[in-house]
Amino acid sequence: MNSKYIKASLIMLLLTCSVAMGQKADKGVVIDKIIAKVDDYIVLKSELEKGYMEFMSRGEITQGDVKCQILESLVINKLMVAKAELDSVEVMDIQVEQELGQRMSYFIQQIGSEEKLEEVYGKTVAQFREELFDQIKEQMIVRKMQGLISADVSITPSEVKSFFKKIPSDSLPYFSTEVTIGHLVKIPEPNDKVKDQIRLELLEFKDQIENGMDFGVLASKYSMDPGSARQGGELGFFNRGELAPEFEAAALGMKPGEISEPVETQFGFHLIQLIERRGNRYNSRHILLIPKATQSDIQESKDFLDSLRTSIVRDSMRFDILAKEHSDDKQTSGNGGYFSDADGAMRISVEELDPTMFFTIDTMKVGEVSKPFEYKMPDGKAAVRIVYYRAKIPPHQANLLDDYQKIRSAALANKRNGIMSDWFKGAQGEVYINIDEEYDYCRILLD
């Protein structure tokens, strides 16, 4: 993966900041052609073209007219958002902030730093977050609706084979080099001295608030939770069980207006104030401080991983077993530390690897385990990991033997699309839909 590819990928990811996907039609002038309207939601021609370019660049398996399929998907997405409003299907803003934070951390990690991101694109991180918030919320609502509509869809091996046989041989995609790699991650644990200092800082904030300082002012200035900091630390209403157990226990153990002692959760240390309680729902605000690991804490993690590496290399311990037991990366630990693609297969195209991982395995041989090294996790946390380069699969044309998981996923997606189309036909009468006559040939509104 070269720098040209990385920048091109990043531009595609950030383009959504300037093209208002899912923007309501009454929110201002749109400098683009509207090709579909679903109640107050619009689809722009640039969305269709961008979606088509991204699809073709991935070399995915499909049947039929790709542009029509993408347009239908975009219209269905807008319909799902409109129906979600009618059916009171919601996504909490705090959930959107969490996903937004992960995506921004990824963007920043790819380009190098917040300062470089702002320099290259001429926007502040805060502006990016503001522009992306509504778009990500729409995507999350769509995912939630899709889950409700097609949750129980399954597919048999015979259906997979039948799907594959219907694809013309000259339409089968050609897959680039793929690799099977895994990592075992340790997040350095800040030592007790660092944690005690954080507790003292929060206790000082508590004294200031009890002596007249505004909680929201301190939260805006010092809280390391960027989503709530902009709201003076206020999180909004949550149900029991939706926030960290330690946080919830402290919040619900107080009267409105009271302030907690410092509370430790997996996210850091919180100073919490209960604002209001309505049965099992409660509104609170907090100041979050996240302790940072020292260099000695990082070295301790490196030493631990080095001992695990030795047990793999010299004692023939299985990497996947150790990863399941010891890795702090919850996204991969359940899979034995291995990365998987969107289809669940433990084979990743080298073009999809982040630069750090690409250049790591570029210096390794198949079967090797790297020495421990520091890196940034997708959420921005500092961590240490070892990497196992298990296999390398050369470029090849799609076939059932080597690519069954990808073909199965394509067949399942095709079946789900059919269910979504049926749902679309049944739901389209409940909202206003208009599609530009240029796309009449797609027959999207026809049975």
Automatic annotation (TrEMBL):
It comes from the Bacteria. Transmembrane segments: none annotated. GO terms for molecular function: peptidyl-prolyl cis-trans isomerase activity. Residues 1-22 form the signal peptide. Residues 176-276, 279-374 form the PpiC domain. PANTHER family: CHAPERONE SURA. This is Periplasmic chaperone for outer membrane proteins SurA.
